[in-house]
Task: structure prediction
Amino acid sequence: MNNIKIKSKNLNVYYGEKQALYDVNLDLNEKEVTALIGPSGCGKSTFIRCINRMNDVIDICKVTGNIEMDGIEINDKDLDVVSLRERVGMVFQKPNPFPKSIYDNVSYGPKIHGKGESKNELDEIVEHSLKKAALWEEVKDRLEEPGTSLSGGQQQRLCIARAISVNPEVILMDEPCSALDPIATAKIEELIDELKKTYTIVIVTHSMAQAVRVSQKTGFFHLGKLIEVGKTEKIFKNPDNKMTQDYITGRFG
Amino acid sequence: MNFVLIFLITIFSLSLFFYGRSKTKSISIEKNIKLKALPKFYGYYLVLWCSIPALVFLLVWSLFEPIIIKTIIIETAANQGAIFDDKNEANLIYEKIKAIHLGTYFGDIDLILKESALSYAKFINLFTNSKVVLIFGIIISSVIYALNKIKNNNKARDDVERILKGLLFVSSLIAILTTLGIIFSLLFESIKFFSVINVFDYLFGTNWSPQRAFVRDASSITAEEYEDLKDAFGFIPLIAGTSFIAFIAMLVAVPVGLFSGIYMAEYASSKVRKFSKPIIEILAGIPTVVYGFFAALTVGPFFRQFGESLGLTVSSESALAAGLIMGIMIIPYVSSLSDDVINSVPQSLRDGSYAVGATKSETIKQVVIPAALPGIIGSVLLAVSRAIGETMIVVMAAGLAANLTINPLESTTTITTQIVMILVGDQEFDSPKTQSAFALGLTLFIATLILNYIAQRAVKKYREKYD
Result:
């Protein structure tokens, strides 16, 4: 059993009047993949956006309760959000490379954090990140081309490389494969398997099969509540909760 | 008379709408047949048939009636012994006859003119009466035709569609023809100008003083006279003045407009946006002549006093005052256009940037602005073409002397100001001085056309990327 990296206690999220999360208590283990499943609008994405405080971007969003990473309170308004996000990277549902070159897409993060003073260092970071994202072989000869010229799957791996480039400890993935075809999906899943050796990964997915394939731990959300959480094997083979059973067998959702 | 006719036609066709609608309804019930279109289409059909032919006829008649009457009157006057040498004198006599008819002529009235005036009155009467008769004839025959069609249960819907399509086509045709007309009128007058003044003398001359060519017949200029005229129409000082003032305007408008656009799009809460955006847009609604007052009466003198207190010579009509006010006028264009482009940069790009730990200003500087750049450039170019074409502010605040200077405190002039100066008042239309206005207009038109084209290309390129 790995150490607990992130721990949420009685986490509530409100969008204006509407409550999106109810008292979520969820522990995420270090260097492990945790999958979050559940029907659309159940709060999975809202939950992972609490981990890197992306909800700050939304004016009407209010978060109460606790969420700790390595014992430090994330949901503290005096926390330095910039350095938090340096430690917690994120990959989005739709590939969103910047309209810049492949190289600039990856070097963007290190540059703004003042990493890679010299061109050489920066080159190294870019190469390292692209290799980790299993994209290096495909793009090493065309780093100056715009990131948007890549295929969808390559773009998503570029976004993973961008997330890796600042050397985070946690990577959040919000349905990273929902816009990709099966082959590109398989590549990303393979990559996730590789990445979990270094990073703590949280993945939101709508694909039960994907959750089974990539994760060690699974949490099932419904209507803003965490219904059940446990080892992936157990959740899918022998869940305690009737609702979980119904969802994974496709009776609703 | 015409208004009464138009009013009658309108009333009549509107009542036909209701008639046609109820009539077809009752026919379909009576004979128990299925109509080929909704009853209201038969109403529309009658309205269109009743109004369009009559209105078109009225328009054509009103266009040609004065010309025909004039020809007839002049001819009869000539037959009665009125003497005139050329067209201008004939026109004069015709105007006299009209004035006598209206009772507004207070000179000696000779017999011939008096008789002509009587026959003029007769013709006017005759034409008006026949106009009314013909229009009613047209209305009656076209309505009978349309009613017949309706009785046979025609496909009124298709016919209405076809007529409407024709109307829309004619409207766009009018717009296109007007554009062409403007271009050609500019072109022909400019060609006249360039047949006297060499294109290169115009484009590269450094002296602009068209008053030198005030009264001179363009068709008979000798080589000597041309030597004198050659350097009266130098374009360089005008384009320099225009670009200079536009440059000062952009120095004001681009930073202020762009920054306020960024603030509105990225920082302002929806509350602030709601009341501040309309206020900025009010700036765009102020008539330019009001900006002109402000520039000429407030800002210009202020600069002069301020400059004098520093020991500088400042002309009260300065490029600086005009450019500054023009810049303020343009701010809303830059700000609301760049606000729009920045808003249409997808949120996912911002999220991607925040997610690697970038701050808001880093995100704006390195992701949002580069992504929106083509659109921003487009909005700036549109603003430049407004600045170049702006007239009133520079007429009032920039001065008239064509100085070739880069001192913003001196007065300078622009293309548009000179066009106004040349064409104000009565002008001899075959003097090179007057024609030069058209050459200036053409040059200005081409310049803004090119700018607009580039701007639209830039905006389009941007759209393709994110839609």
